[in-house]
Design brief:
Layout (H helix, E strand, L loop, with lengths): L14 E7 L3 H11 L5 E4 L8 H4 L20 H6 L9 H14 L6 E2 L4 E7 L4 E6 L4 E9 L21 E4 L14 E5 L3 H13 L2 E6 L5 E3 L7 H9 L1 H8 L21 H14 L2 H5 L9 H18 L3 H7 L12 E3 L2 H4 L5 E5 L5 E5 L2 E4 L4 E3 L2 E4 L8 H4 L2 E4 L5 H4 L18 E3 L12 H22 L3 E4 L1 H16 L29 H13 L5 E4 L7
Parallel strand pairs: 1-2, 1-6, 2-3, 4-17, 6-18, 7-16, 8-9, 8-16, 9-12, 10-11
Antiparallel strand pairs: 4-5, 5-6, 13-14, 14-15, 19-20
Helix pairs in contact: 1-15, 10-11, 15-17
The structure holds 3-acetylpyridine adenine dinucleotide.
3-acetylpyridine adenine dinucleotide binds next to helix 5.
């Protein structure tokens, strides 16, 4: 039988029960949960501090677009009662402070090895063990791996010619200098108008001498209506915290408190519909808006009513009609790309020192020593360039690690045509390697921390089951993986999501296979499926005992 308290059966110091890749919200919860089972764990984190996304994305205005009372861990009632969020939406510094508080409160820090990037992971089938190698020369053996490397953690600067000769300074939103950047008096160019660009543009505009925004695709954004936390709201929320967290598990986005819609947008009279959208616009927040009617994400005609409402808002806010028309998205239905939340984004284009440049009709040709130039020959003189150009999402972080097995499989090859997983949790042919909120999981379409906790609890329960049964290998079957991938695609195809060229589809990375990666069937449906799989004896997984290996 395996050792009673560990799953490795080995006692040497270089060997772990579980090696965790990543020291963000997922990696820290995995430490907490798995250490709590008496397992020997260590997390490897490339950054010089913990926090993942919230450690790296320090650009001006970085803030969560899920309300702070929701976007927090639920595993400790004491923690959720004690922590005070000062605003409706947490800023990056506040969220990082919270994460550090959690690490200290639960003594997690000593299990994280910072400044260490995992470069490769090899599964030896005979030894039934993973060997991880890091850029610091560590060789770490572990029975299990938990990949908690993040979905938006591989920043991407487009391959523009001439960047190395640019005389000014340049930045990427996801690699922001810790000391901050003062744009006062500078001519600044921001490339990209996704969530990151939309948050930083109003703030940079207030500092810069002149700001040029280079927009390839207009994005829908709604007012966040951020505000100081109302004491009464906080009190009420905290009084029913546990019940709210449970209720969130029965919703598609893992967020409670938004009444489930009951009617199609096409069932109601135009005036009534407009009034409903107006109320949501005034309330602020994206879930509430997309939850106005049952069919905004599945019926194009229904969606058109909401898309047009927001386009009209943009036209009413932005004074210059040409700029307003450029800012009004027409190439994708609202909500099929991540719906942004902003504070005075559209208003910013009414400033004299802000110019919107359409790089869809006239793309950027190259970066010059003094700025950038478009294909049409327009030249822009810039002192600083900010790339808000996004990430190699969902698969980038795992593809950067050379993941192989002794049977000759490599994850890069297995995923050459797009990511394949079973439940987003495991990959067939890669035993004892779990993924937290990876492709095939609903993670990025939900309140992320709820998904992190649900996935990690599932993994912990699986390991506990194996330990009690004397098992030491778990793998997804190829059939279960194929069925799940087909299901993920079928669900996506029954929605409007595939109509947008989004990072959900890998469309932002030239050459990346165009495969819809997140599961959009909803957190509630996904969790029920995960629970049913367990109830059916881990259906679709093979759990075995490599008996000869166990001392
Ligand atoms: O990245 P994005 P992001 N030339 O990929 C443009 C989360 N997040 O960092 O659409 C010109 O959304 C690109 O144009 P196009 C959230 O999940 C959350 O903003 O490809 N432009 C697009 O406009 C979000 O969805 C929060 O045509 C180029 C932009 O760059 C995800 O992270 C805050 C270009 C990239 O947008 C990613 O958001 C921030 C080129 N060559 C992020 N290449 C909150 O919680 C790319 N672009 C609020």
């Amino acid at each position: 039988m395996p050792d009673a308290s560990t799953l490795s059966g080995a006692a040497d110091k270089a060997s772990l029960d579980v090696a965790i890749v990543g020291g963000g919200l997922a990696g820290l919860y995995a430490i907490y949960r798995l250490r709590g089972m008496g397992l020997r764990v260590r997390a490897f984190e490339a950054g010089s501090g913990i926090g993942g996304t919230w450690f790296w994305n320090r650009y001006p205005g970085a803030r969560c677009d899920v309300e702070s009372l929701e976007y927090s861990y639920s595993f400790s009632e004491d923690l959720q009662q004690a922590w005070k969020w000062p605003e409706r939406y947490g800023t990056q510094p506040e969220i990082l402070r919270y994460i550090n508080h959690v690490a200290d409160r639960f003594d997690l820090r000593r299990h994280v090895q910072l400044n260490t990037r995992v470069k490769s992971a090899l599964f030896d089938a005979d030894a039934n063990e993973w060997t991880l190698r890091t850029d610091k020369g560590d060789v770490v053996r572990a029975r299990f791996c938990v990949m908690a490397a993040g979905n938006l953690s591989t920043p991407r600067v487009p391959d523009f010619k001439g960047l190395q000769d640019f005389r000014g300074k340049w930045y990427h939103s996801g690699l922001w200098p810790h000391e901050g950047v003062d744009f006062s008096g500078l001519r600044v160019g921001v490339i990209g108008t996704g969530s990151s660009g939309i948050q930083m543009i109003p703030i940079i505009a207030r500092q810069a001498k002149h700001l040029h925004v280079f927009q390839r695709t207009a994005n829908f954004s709604l007012p966040a209506r951020n505000a100081p936390m109302e004491p009464e709201r906080e009190r009420r929320h905290k009084a029913e915290y546990a019940a709210r967290r449970r209720a969130a598990h029965d919703t598609p986005f893992a967020i409670a408190g938004h009444p489930k819609p009951t009617r199609s947008a096409l069932e109601v009279a135009p005036d009534e519909r407009k009034a409903a959208y107006e109320a949501k616009w005034q309330e602020g927040g994206s879930i509430s808006f997309l939850y106005a009617y049952t069919d905004l994400l599945v019926n194009k005609d229904a969606n058109d009513t909401a898309s047009e409402f927001v386009r009209e808002k943009i036209r009413s806010i932005v004074k210059d009609p040409r700029t307003a028309e450029l800012l009004a998205p027409k190439d994708h239905p609202i909500g099929t790309k991540r719906l942004c939340l902003d504070t005075e984004y559209y208003e910013t284009y009414n400033r004299d020192n802000v110019t919107l440049v359409d790089v869809r009709s006239d793309p950027i040709r190259d970066i010059t020593p003094s700025g950038l130039r478009t294909e049409g020959g327009a030249a822009f003189e810039l002192d600083a360039i900010v790339f808000a150009t996004g990430f190699d999402a969902m698969t980038g972080a795992l593809r950067e690690i050379d993941i192989r097995t002794s049977a000759g499989a490599s994850l890069a090859d297995h995923w050459a045509g797009g990511p394949l997983t079973y439940l987003g949790l495991m990959v067939a042919g890669f035993p004892n390697m779990f993924i937290v909120t990876g492709p095939g999981s609903p993670g990025v379409k939900t309140q992320m921390i709820a998904s992190i906790e649900q996935h990690t609890d599932w993994i912990a329960n699986c390991l506990d089951h194996m330990r009690r049964q004397g098992l030491d290998r778990v793998e997804a079957t190829p059939e279960a993986e194929a069925d799940w991938v087909q299901h993920v695609n079928a669900v996506a195809d029954s929605t409007l999501y595939p109509l947008a060229n989004s990072w959900y589809l890998g469309a932002n990375i030239p050459g990346k296979p165009r495969v819809f990666m997140p599961y959009v069937g909803g957190f509630d449906r996904y969790k029920r499926r995960c629970d049913a799989v367990v109830a059916d004896g881990y259906e679709g997984f093979r759990l075995t005992r490599q008996a000869a290996l166990v001392a």
